[in-house]
Amino acid sequence: MKSPTLSIDALNKVVAALPEDNLATSRRAALDQFRQDGMPGGREENWKYTDLSEAVAIANRWLEAGAEIPRAGVAAVDDIVRAIDADWIVIDNGQIDTQAVDGTAIAGVEIKHLSSSAEQLTPSGRLGDLNAALLRDGLRISIAASTELARPIGILIVDHADSAATVSQIRVDIDVAANSSAGFIEYHVSNGDAELYANSVVNVTLGDGSRADYVRIQDRDRAHEQTGYQSVTVGRDAELRHCAFDFGGRMVRNDLVIDLANPGGNAEFAGLYLIGDGQHIDNHTRTDHRTGPTESHQEYRGILTGKARGVWNGKAIVHKGADGTDAEQANHNLVLSRNAEIDAKPELEIYADDVKCSHGTTIGQLDETALFYLRTRGLSQHDAKQVLTRAFAQAIVGKAPISSLHDFLADRIAGRLDQLMQETDA
Amino acid sequence: MLEVKDLKASIGGTEILRGLSLRVDAGEVHAIMGPNGSGKSTLAQVIAGHSDYDVTDGTVAFRGKNLLELEPEERAREGIFLGFQYPVEIPGVNNAYLLKAAVNAKRKHQGLDEIDAFEFLKLAREKMALLDMDPKLLNRGVNEGFSGGEKKRNEILQMAMLEPSLAILDETDSGLDIDALRAVAEGVNALRAPNRAIVLVTHYQRLLDYIEPDHVHVLSEGRIARSGDKSLALELEEKGYDWVRKAANG
């Protein structure tokens, strides 16, 4: 398998036509870098199971057709905004609803357009370069020091592809200053019958003694493709609580990169992928313990039906001198069909002496004894399966650090599960 | 109420029940005793509908219906309850949720509306008090982290809520201390009724000091080797299972 190739000529032309705003320098630098490095994929170990060639094909068709960006429909958005209590900002096919941003006044929070910020974009990997090169606008959200947000900030990313192949680039920088605590909901949806590839980059910096509660929900159309890169730099005695849910998408690749470079840094993160026929969801996490004492605990769970394909790769690197590291990773999969496939790989690289590290991976089916038990209590086989599967998912829902989302997530999971079980008659 | 005739059942090709016949009428309490491997639990599992067991011969009728044609959930809704020897821990499924789902599955089958939430809670708390159960257990995962005694009480709680016509309690006494045994027995005795039958599957006579059976059967090698009244259990306690085995073979 070769790395898929993006049409550089078309990319050059599209990037050159973008406005000479504050992002122009970053765009050019990213374009130069991207021209050197190209797309990830091919023989690379990190991309072994995930093929970006369809996303690249969509991008080529879009670039060659002049890189038009349609405005998204907001119908799907209203429901979410109504159901979840948060201060919402909408990113619509990578464009930002200016009015909402400029009109959003939350004490201790500053929200800015990246296009009007003088700061250069942080390099964020090869897909991050593609993102930066094509970026029209993004958001920078800054939480002032010693601020405690009462409501989470919701970032609703909605993409729409109605009549032609569409690509959107989403970029959000989040800065939580020292001794603050804030909740964030990053919610991806997409709609429309045409092809779509969305590429998002979110870089989070947590100041000393701060805390971020972060929930990411990806519920895109099942024909659409997405790559998402998120980095989190954790300050001294700072805490990250992160939980990611993947329901939609045809090809989805998530990279979560956590940097624990300061003593007392702590990251608890979890994820759930609930997927069916034709879906390929790849979660790669990387945690760098650069010093001690630092802690990371992760648990991802997958529920796979039909011909779903899941990938989980959890990498923890304990660098030289990072004594007092506690790193734990777990991945559990419930495979409800014969044709689903999961590739699960925990990876620990340890270069320090005094560390506590563990990992565990399981792949299994529903417990027959528990199924029988429930049926002897009068539950139908279908209901018994539903109940047990929801319970499996519930362990992750319970870890979502914004508890006002728990009921919403449980409902979404029940609804999706019902749909998937009907499709596969599982 | 329950009529088992010449029942033969096997698991993985090994025959466990070898022509067992048993008749249980409404209002009766039967105790089924026997050494390990005699087929006591198999009988309970086959009546409840466990798919690991193949019924190769014989019939099981419940109120005139052919039970062997029904799925486990249909048997439950018809009024059969199996109390498990090893109640299953189901983390993430709320105990109250299961109780309610079970009650409603049965009510739906009977053409009744779902139980009112307030009514349900009141009833559950009442039954729990009778079983001397911590009300907090209602909001825990099903049997999750329960002690042995709590698990068995939880089985009896389910039975009390479901009010089955036929309750089969598989080794309900195993692993119980004397207080738990008393509480469980009290719960069972409270459910004795003219329209209900209870089958106690047990290895030891001890349980029968607290729940007095009308009939006692001793299983040996997949058949009922001996039947009698409660004095049979005492005789058995005294002479041991070898006595039955020898008598059956001799």
Question: How would you explain this protein's 3D organization?
Answer:
- The complex is a heterodimer of chains A (426) and B (250).
- With 426 residues, chain A is of the alpha/beta class.
- Chain A has helices at 8-16, 24-37, 53-64, 75-83, 98-103, 125-134, 368-375, 381-397, 406-424, and strands at 87-92, 95-96, 109-113, 139-143, 153-160, 166-176, 181-191, 196-206, 211-219, 225-234, 239-246, 251-260, 266-275, 280-289, 294-304, 309-318, 325-335, 341-350, 355-364.
- Chain A has a domain at 8-262.
- Chain A is built from nine helices and 19 strands.
- Chain A has a ten-stranded mixed β-sheet.
- The radius of gyration of chain A is 21 Å and the shape is globular.
- Chain B is an alpha/beta fold.
- Chain B has a single domain (2-249), classed as Rossmann fold (3-Layer(aba) Sandwich).
- Helices cover 37% and strands 29% of the residues of chain B.
- Chain B is built from eight helices and twelve strands.
- In chain B, the strands form three sheets. In chain B, strands 6-9-10-3-11-12 form a six-stranded mixed β-sheet, sandwiched between helices.
- In chain B, strand 1 (2-11) and strand 2 form a beta hairpin.
- In chain B, helix 5 (148-162) packs parallel to helix 6.
- The model of chain B has no long low-confidence stretch (mean pLDDT 93).
- The interface between A and B is medium-sized, with 22 and 29 residues.
